[in-house]
Amino acid sequence: MDKGTGVSGVGVLDKAVLVLGALEAGPASLAQLVTATGLARPTAHRLAVALEHHRLVGRDLQGRFVLGDRHAELAAAAGEDRLVAVAGPLLVTLRDETNESAQLYRRHGEHRVCIAVAERLHGLRDTVPVGASMTMNAGSAAQVLVAWDDPQRLAVELHASRFDAATLAGVRRRGWAHSVGERETGVASVSAPVRGPSGRVVAAVSVSGPAERLGRHPGRRHAEAVLRTAAAFTAALRPTDAPG
To answer: Beta-strand (E) ranges in 136-200?
Structure first.
């Protein structure tokens, strides 16, 4: 393999990697894939559809190509999922600081999935098991995961949401979200975005509990702690310099 150019000598594989690399930057139409990869339009389409068959590529609500769910599954199976690897101590610290249950959510298509949790040890709590799949239409974590979507996609998502564009504008301005009774009656939560090395939002860290305890404005109580934890997750995802 030519490490300088990333060419392995297996043409179809090299071209498929070009497609996947282009999608790291975010959703892309076929025309955008052609521009980003330099591949002929029929070739780019054929490879993207083939990768979609294997769930390495998916589609968003507008039919654009996106990275598929299979990448996260492979990373988790190989034990290389950095988010999950660092989640335990960070969520435990957040739980102990707020005395509420703490969760980490990642988007999977049109749902969000809880990938790590630290439950409140005693008393009434909001229990969310690892692997739980929830709607993207309600709750502070959903607000965080969609707030920085491109405007066209956001317009589609808001049609079925319990929050509106003004709510998401507030999320972007503050850098965190909160909700009371939006996902489930009697439950309140506060969430903040975790960003990958490119700056894209890749997850949401949250605390949640009974609304009667968190109050009508839970962000006033817990936003600072949640933001610190989100920043710690973001820092953990930054690439480290190689020695020497």
So the answer is: 177-180, 187-195
